[in-house]
Design a protein that fits this description.
With about 180 residues, this protein is of the alpha+beta class. It has a single domain, classed as 3-Layer(aba) Sandwich (Aminopeptidase). The protein contains four helices and eight strands. Helix 1 packs across helix 2. Bound molecules: coenzyme A (COA).
Length: about 180
C-alpha cells in the first residue's frame, strides 16, 4: 500500500529512522507537550526509540503515523493510534486520531489539512469504520480542529489524566465512515 499522501500544501509520509534528527528538534520543545502523553525529549536515543515504535506499530497494524512535511521539512506528526480491528467476535475497526505540529508552524491550518487527508485514508484504505479524538478540556486549538473536521462530541470524562500536579478532563469525539 502506498502511504504517501499529498495535500494542498503538505506531503504526509511514514517516518523512517533517518528522520530522528529532525524529529528530535521538534520533540524536545517544551511548548509542545502540555497536553501530550510524553515529556520533551532530552536525548536523541529517546526519539530513535519512538521512531522505531512508530514503524513497528505500522507493521503490526495497530497504529499508523505520518510525518507532516512542508517543503520536504518535517513540521509535525499526525497519527492513527490504538487501532482495534476486533474484540473477540465483535468487529471494531476503530482508531484514535492524534496530532502535533511544531510550535513555530502552528495556527496556519496544517493540523486540520493533514488530519482531513488521514481521516480519508483511514476510512478508504485502512478499512476503518470509526475514528475518535480525545483532547484535554483546556486544549482550545484541538477542540477547534474537532469542530472543523465535523467530529461529534460524545463524552466528557472527568479527571482523565494527571500531569504537572493537576487532573485534566478529556473531551471525546467520534466520526463514523459515511456509507456510499
Ligand atoms: C493542536 C495543534 C496540533 C493544532 O495545530 P495547528 O496546525 O495550529 O492547527 P490548525 O491551524 O489546523 O487549527 C487550529 C485552530 O485553533 C484556533 N486557535 C488557535 N489558538 C486559539 C486560541 N487560543 N483560542 C481559540 N482558538 C484558537 C486557530 O485559530 C485554528 O482555528 P481556525 O482555523 O478556525 O482559525 C497544535 O496546537 C499542537 O501541536 N499543540 C500541541 C500538541 C497538542 O496539544 N496536540 C493535540 C492533542 S489532543
Amino acid at each position: 500500500m502506498d502511504f504517501n499522501i499529498n495535500t494542498e500544501r503538505l506531503l504526509l509520509r511514514t517516518p523512517i529512522l533517518s528522520d530522528v534528527d529532525e524529529l528530535f528538534v521538534l520533540m524536545s520543545d517544551i511548548k509542545l507537550i502540555q497536553f501530550l502523553t510524553w515529556e520533551p525529549h532530552t536525548n536523541i536515543e529517546t526519539t530513535k526509540e519512538v521512531v522505531q515504535r512508530l514503524i513497528l506499530a505500522q507493521q503490526n497494524d495497530n497504529g499508523y503515523h505520518w510525518c507532516v512535511c512542508l517543503n520536504y521539512k518535517i513540521i509535525g506528526l499526525v497519527s492513527l493510534i490504538d487501532l482495534r480491528r476486533k474484540v473477540r467476535t465483535w468487529i471494531i475497526n476503530r482508531a484514535e486520531l492524534s496530532y502535533w505540529i511544531g510550535s513555530q508552524f502552528q495556527g496556519k491550518g496544517y493540523a486540520t489539512e493533514a488530519s482531513k487527508s488521514i481521516i480519508n485514508f483511514g476510512f478508504q484504505n485502512l478499512n476503518l469504520h470509526k475514528i475518535i479524538i480525545a483532547h484535554a478540556a483546556e486544549n482550545i486549538e484541538s477542540k477547534r480542529i474537532c469542530n472543523k473536521l465535523n467530529f461529534t462530541q460524545y463524552a466528557h470524562e472527568h479527571d482523565a489524566f494527571f500531569k504537572n500536579n493537576k487532573w485534566y478532563d478529556l473531551i471525546w469525539y467520534e466520526l463514523i465512515k459515511v456509507k456510499k
